[in-house]
Amino acid sequence: MYSGNRSGGHGYWDGGGAAGAEGPAPAGTLSPAPLFSPGTYERLALLLGSIGLLGVGNNLLVLVLYYKFQRLRTPTHLLLVNISLSDLLVSLFGVTFTFVSCLRNGWVWDTVGCVWDGFSGSLFASLCGRSSDNSSDQDFKI
Prior knowledge:
142 residues, mainly alpha, 2 strands, disordered N terminus, receptor, transmembrane, GPCR_opsins
């Protein structure tokens, strides 16, 4: 599996061989050379951390308010709760792997972590998209 930016001369294959004529990868690393400077990784980690915290906090607030107030339990609000729940899952599972990788200046997970990151982000984001599609269809039927 290819890991890195080939155009910048940092590309290596996981098996230890080079992607081109760059030479062998250092032992024990999946991405030997960072794509960005350490300062850029810090800014990305700050941005992803704030997006994750705001996403978790706001979506938990929506779920708590829906549970606490009986008058909010309508079919339309249930669709919004469904969107909020899937967005909460994206915030928890979709941002975490990338946030930790930004803190460590490169992707630190193995192939299974990469597959899980892509799968969970796609699954929960598509659930969020399907919920919003259903809610827009509901508006037109009324």
